[in-house]
Amino acid sequence: MQMMLEVKQLTGGYNPRRPVLHEVDFHVKPGEMVGLIGLNGAGKSTTIKHILGLMEPQQGNIKIADVMLKENSEKYRSAFAYVPETPILFDELTVEEHLRLTGMAYGVEDKRYEQSIVQLLEQFQMTNKRQSFASHLSKGMKQKVMIMNALLASPELFIIDEPFLGLDPIGIRSLLEQLVQLKNDGAAILMSSHILSTVETYCDRLIILHQGKVVAQGTMEMIRHKAGAPFATANLEELFYHFTKEGAN
Ligand SMILES: Nc1ncnc2c1ncn2[C@@H]1O[C@H](COP(=O)(O)OP(=O)(O)OP(=O)(O)O)[C@@H](O)[C@H]1O
């Protein structure tokens, strides 16, 4: 099966003499939700910045939809939508204007646009905020606008950074339902989160980053196997602790 996202032997960071990431290697296929987890400072956001093309790999390469950014930036960029941890909106635009902009940027047809935004606004309990300016929204509502924009764009790959923090329980459930639907329809999803129970329940595979290295990856079964016999029935939190405790690797 074609890889939607391929990160190959990625070494990178903010200073060429002191890389933050060391030969990070993983992929996400269509129809898969993959969780990227690690302690504070493990390198999750740095990995995501490289994938977004905001940072240049020092070694290795990244492909989205089979192309590197430098080979075909339009194909690379239009294949994914990114939901950042901290919402980034235009204060002077309304919720609907944000959605309209996304619809235009991703070429969403008028008919699908109308149907989608009515559904999204309802699912995320934002119908009565349709005409509100972004500056008048709460933090969680801003996060919902970012998520609705990504869902409206409906790309082949979603990159979602710590999506649950600002959301209320209904928002979390709506997001998870939508992600499962998208995945079942063939989308690839890379999600970074500290909420391990949710990651364990929803992700098909996991990548555990520790001090800029992948210390374990695969299905829960594969990660349990790697941890050894005492972890045969361990949950993700126990496995996470095992692989990220001081000096684990
Ligand atoms: N702008 C920056 N300049 C220099 N170093 C940075 C910068 N941003 C992050 N770092 C360093 O890179 C390392 C990885 O940080 P990163 O933000 O990728 O971690 P993270 O896994 O996303 O953590 P968290 O769970 O806290 O969000 C840390 O040592 C951090 O200090």
From TrEMBL:
SMART domains: AAA. Residues 5-236 form the ABC transporter domain. GO terms for molecular function: ATP binding. Keywords: ATP-binding, Nucleotide-binding, Transport. Gene3D superfamilies: P-loop containing nucleotide triphosphate hydrolases (3.40.50.300). Coiled coil: none annotated. The keyword ATP-binding applies. Pfam families: ABC_tran. PANTHER family: ABC TRANSPORTER ATP-BINDING PROTEIN ALBC-RELATED, ABC-TYPE TRANSPORTER ATP-BINDING PROTEIN ECSA. This is ABC transporter ATP-binding protein.
